[in-house]
Amino acid sequence: MPEIPDHLDHGLSILFIGFNPSLLSGETGHHYANPRNNFYRILHRAGLTPRLYDASEDQDLLRIGYGFTNIVARPTRGIDDIDRSEYAEGREILHAKLMKYRPKIACFVGKGVYTEYSKRAKVNWGFEPNPVVPEIHEFVAPSSSGLVRMPMEEIVGIYRQLAEYIAEHGE
Q1: Residue 14 or residue 83, greater confidence
Q2: What are the contacts of 87-95 at 24+ separation with CB within 8 A?
Q3: From 81's CA, which of 18, 50, 90, 107 has a CA 20 to 30 Å away?
Q4: Where in the numbering of this chain does the Uracil-DNA glycosylase-like domain appear (predicted)?
């Protein structure tokens, strides 16, 4: 299955970084395309988007300063289908993307995404005090997968920190 295209640009307010695309995302070519994935609902409820976007509109979020990429580009059924070498390669590719595009905030959609990237065993939700790339604010957010057992309001509250930061700092 082909990789889905990143949505990257210079000057992004937030670059959202996922584990890897789902099979449905691979089929459609759009990020967070599984209808059970809450990504676009979370962004809207957290105040990050002015309206509820659909996965088919993912490229339109570039206009409001949001981009998309993944630590592993290959679509899979789940993260259990990703092997260690793919994470190692993806870590290097992701670091190069961050260095090239330098988003103001790199939002890791899932603790596991950030631990794979940073090689840190333990991380908390929110902004990381010691980012891997010091010039970029690194933010760890819950996965938006429908499989996550955290209450939706708690997830939205964590993402709302991003909206508040952007509003406060004019990002």
Answers
A1: 14
A2: 87/116, 90/116, 91/116, 91/117, 91/119, 94/17, 94/69, 95/132, 95/133
A3: 107
A4: 6-151
Q: How distant is the alpha carbon of residue 128 from its chain centre?
A: 15
**Distance of alpha carbon 100 from alpha carbon 4, whole angstroms:** 19
Rounded to a whole number of angstroms, the distance between the first and last alpha carbons of the chain is 36
Question: What's the per-residue H, E or C state across 42-81?
Answer: HHHHCCCCCCCCCHHHHHHHHHHCEEEEECCCCCECCHHH
Whole-prediction pTM: 0.94
- Domains of the chain, by residue range, sit at 14-169
Given a cut of 90, whether residue 76 has pLDDT beyond it is: no
Q: Alpha-carbon distance 39 to 65, whole Å?
A: 16
Per-residue pLDDT for 171 more than 70? no
